[in-house]
Write a structure and sequence with these properties.
The chain is mainly α. It is 62% helix and 7% strand. It has a two-stranded antiparallel sheet with strand order 1-2. The protein is globular, with a radius of gyration of 17 Å. The C terminus is likely disordered.
Length: 146
């Protein structure tokens, strides 16, 4: 019997929502939010990237990402420098690297708890199925959007 697609879609959304709420709450303990930490993670993985590139990998509009990175720059976590033409490049500052590292420690704990109901083999199966659904190869490791 096929799964009801609306029920399936809602279950995926519910798991994502639960994970995001837990991450956002825990990240506040290290002085950041999920959106800010995700932006720091994207800048770390793509040093020198433009706001357009970073907006795409963080699932934000260019305008929303621009406002977010402006706040991160004001906090001294991101440095923006002129690039070729009108391009503005983004890099983490030492304070940004520290915040990112603290966020990684928090994220590891939260995600371990979120996925604890699943044995390791089921986690691997779920990852493979989600990669297939997202059009990625089974062996593709996509750290850009992780």
């Amino acid at each position: 019997m096929d799964a009801d697609l609306q029920v399936l879609g809602r279950a995926v959304k519910q798991a994502q929502y639960r994970q995001h709420r837990a991450l956002d709450s825990a990240l506040s303990e290290v002085g950041t939010t999920l959106a800010q930490w995700d932006a720091l993670r994207a800048v770390s993985r793509r040093p020198g990237a433009s706001a357009r590139e970073l907006a795409a990998v963080t699932f934000q509009s260019e305008q929303a990402f621009g406002a977010l990175v402006g706040r991160l720059a004001a906090q001294g976590l991101v440095k923006r420098t002129p690039g070729h033409g009108r391009r503005v490049e983004h890099h983490l500052t030492p304070a940004g690297e520290q915040t990112l590292a603290a966020g990684h420690r928090v994220s590891d704990k939260v995600l371990e708890e979120c996925f604890s109901p699943l044995p390791s083999a089921d986690r691997a199966t779920l990852l493979g199925l989600l990669r297939q659904l997202n059009g990625e190869g089974p062996d593709q490791l996509d750290l850009q959007n992780a």
